[in-house]
Amino acid sequence: MNGEIKEKAQDNPFLPESARIVNTRYLTKDVKFFQVRFRDMEKALSFKYKPGQFAMVSVQGSGEAPFCISSSPSRPGLLEFCIQKKGTVTDALFRLKENDVIGVRGPYGNGFPVENMEDKDVMIVMGGLGVAPLRSVLLYCLDNRDLFNRVILLHGARTPSDMIFRDEFLSLKEREDLECFLTVDQDDSGGWKENIGVVTTIFPKIKAIDSSSTYGLVCGPPIMYKFVIEEFIKLNIPKDQILMTLERRMKCGVGKCGHCAIDYIYTCIDGPVFTYWDVIHMRELI
Amino acid sequence: MKIVKLKKKNLSPFLEGISKNADLWAPVKKYSDRHCFQIVEDLSLIDLDYTRTLLPPRNIILPPKFDMFQVAGIEYEPNFSHVAKRILFGIHPCDIHGLLIMDKFYSHSYEDPYYLESRKNTIVLGHSCWPDENCLCKSTNTHIVEEGYDLFFTDLNQDYLVWIGSSRGDDLIRLKPDLFEEEIKEKDIQSFIQRREEKDKAFQAEINFTAMPDLMELKYNDPLWEELGTACLACGSCSNVCPTCNCYNVEDKPVLGKNCANVNRCWDACTLEYYSGVAGGENFREQRSDRLKLWYTHKFQAYISKYGKPACVGCGRCVATCPVDINVLTVAKTLDGNSIDSFWKRLSKEVAK
Question: Which of A80, A108, A136 is the last residue of a domain?
C-alpha cells in the first residue's frame, strides 16, 4: 500500500475502532447485555452520540451488524448494547467474554430530537427488545430530569422473565418524578405484582396529558406499532411528535450499501428515528 | 474548453505512448456479438464500433468482488489492492454520466475511499457513439457530456476532435504533442454539426422522464406492480448491468489454514430475494413487486428528488438484458398508461391459447 493510500485509509469510514467488552451478562434467556469501552481512552471519552443513534458492531472474522446504543450519552465512557441472538454476528458475540475485543464504529443515524423534546411531556412505550434504543432516551431524560416535563414510561414484555432490565425498571417505580408502568402479557409464576395485559391496557391509567406538548415514543415488535400509534392518535398527540425507531438490513451504516433504502431515504442516514408523519408520507416504513 | 484534432492513424501511437505506466481498458469484441471492457495489451483488439458493453464501467472502478480489510486477531488492515493506475478508453457519454452519478453518490455525506481512490486513479477517455433501438440517452439528456472525462474523442470519419476536459487530459496531450493539430478547420466544424444532427435523428426510443416521479407516486398501489412482479424472475440482471446501481454486500470470509479473515465487498442487487432480509428471518421486501418498486423508485424518483435528474443514463443495458422485458422503457411506458407487454405475460398468453 503506498503512502497516499495509507493516509486515505486513516479516515476510512468503514474501519472499526477496537473496543473491549468490560461486562456482559444475560438479561433474558436469549438477550445479552454488553458493556464495552474503546481501547483508546481518548476515543472512549470523546465518543459523542444522541439517544436513538446506532453503531456498527463487528466480531473479527464473523461480520458486522447495526445495533442501537442502549446507554445514554449523559453517562460517557462506556457504551451499552442489549443484543438478541438472531444470526451470524450475534452468535459470535454471544460466544465472547469479558476482556474480549470487538470492533465498533459510529455513531450513525439521526437519533431522537431530544432538544425539541425539552420542556415537553415525554411518553416512552417499549415492548420486548424495543427497550434497546428507548432505554437510552429514558436514561437521558432521567439524567437531565429538569429539562423535561412529565416523563411517562410504559414497558411491556411477554412474561416477567422476558422483561429486559426488569430489576432496573422495577427500581425505577420508586422514583416520584417518573410515571412508570410495567406490564406482562401473562404471568405463569404468579409472583408478578404489576399490571397484566398488553401494553395498551395501561393507557387508561395515565393521567390526562397535554397532547400538543407531548412526545410519544414507541419501539417494539412490529405488531406493537399499530396499536400503540392508535392510542397516541386517540390522545391527540400530533403525528410529527410520534416517534419510532426502525430496523433494516444495513451493511455500511453510512448510506452507501443501499440495503436500508426506503423510498428516497436511507434508514441509516435519515433514520432510524422516524415520525408517524414520515410513515404516512413515505409508506413502506412499517 | 480546449479542443484539438487527431488523425485517426495517430490514435494507436497516442494510446501506446500514454499507457506505459497504466492498465489500458478498452472495448473488445467478445462472445461473437458482445463487447466488454478489458485490459488490452494488443491495441488491434480494441473495437470502437460498439453500442454498449455487457457490464457498466463501475465494474472497473470497483471490481465485482474485492477485499476491504484483512482481519488478523483484532486488527483490521485496510486493503486497497483494487486501486491501480488505469486508463479507460472508449467509454460513451451515457457511461461517463453513470460515473458522474456514482461520484456524487459515493462522495455524498460520508466519503467512500474505496470508490474515490480508485476513481481518482482512473483516466477517462470518452468516445462518441451512435444510438441503436434501445438507446434512451436523449430522453435522459445524457447523450452529450461536458464533464467527467479527461479527454473525449468525437469521431469525424478521418479525424477525431478531441475535447480536453481536465488538466490531467492536457498533460496527456503534452506527452505526444506532435500527434495533434491545434487548428480546427471550418469543414471539421461543419462535419461535426452534421454528425450531431444526424445522431439526434437516429434515436428511436423515448421516455418522458419528467413525468416519472409523479407517476411513481400516483401508481404506487397500482396492480401493474403485481403483474410486473409475477413476470420478474428476480435474477438481478438489471442491477448487474446498470451503470448507476450502487448497492453492495459485505461479508467476512475466513482464510482457510490461516488465522485471519477478509472483509469482502461485492455488488448486490435489490431485486434479489434476501436483499432486505434481516437476522431472525424478517424480510421487508418478500414480494418481487416490492423489490421492483424499489428499483424503479431509485431510477425514476429518488435520485431526481435529491439531485434533480433521474438515476438512469439511458444506456439501454436493462432493455437489452432483461430476459422478460422488464426495463426502464417498458416500465415507463406502463406507468404512462400503456398496457404491460412483458415477455413473460406474452408467453403465458401464448401457452393459455
Answer: A108
Asked if residue B172 and residue B120 are part of one domain, the reply reads yes
* Nearest CA-CA distance, residue A189 and chain B, Å: 28
Residues of B with CB below 8 A from A248's CB? Answer: 276, 278, 284
- Are B252 and B262 spatial neighbours (Cβ–Cβ below 8 Å)? yes
* Distant-in-sequence, close-in-space partners of A95: CB < 8 Å, separation ≥ 6: none
Q: How many helices (H) and strands (E) does chain B have?
A: 14, 12
- Domain-embedded: residue A167: yes
State the smallest CA–CA distance between residue A62 and chain B in angstroms.
6
- Judge if A92 and A141 occupy the same domain: no
* Per-residue confidence in pLDDT tens, chain B, 353 aa: 899 999 999 999 999 999 999 999 999 999 888 999 999 999 999 999 999 999 999 999 999 999 999 999 889 999 999 999 999 999 999 999 999 999 999 998 899 999 999 999 999 999 999 999 999 999 999 999 999 999 999 999 899 999 999 999 999 999 999 999 999 999 999 999 999 999 999 999 888 888 888 999 899 989 999 989 988 999 999 999 999 999 999 999 999 888 899 999 999 999 998 888 888 888 888 889 999 999 999 999 888 887 888 899 999 999 999 999 999 999 999 998 887 777 777 777 777 77
Residue A280 lies in a domain: no
- Three-state DSSP at A262 gives strand
Residues B191, B226: one domain? no
> Which element (helix H / strand E) includes B186?
helix B186-202
Complex ipTM value: 0.90
Pair B348, B257 in one domain: yes
- The reply to whether A82 falls in a domain is yes
Buried/exposed A18-43: b ≥16 CB within 10 Å, e otherwise: bbbbeebeebbeebbbbbbbbeeeee
User: Cβ contact (<8 Å) for B250 and A86?
Assistant: no
Residues A22 and A76 in one domain: yes
Is residue B176 domain-shared with residue B216, that is, in the same domain? no
Residues in chain A with CB shorter than 8 Å from the CB of B68 are 14
Interface contact flag, A18 B302, Cβ < 8 Å: no
Q: How many domains does chain A have?
A: 2
Residues A179 and A144 in one domain: yes
Sign of CA dihedral B199, B201, B204, B208: positive
Same domain (yes/no): A54, A99: yes
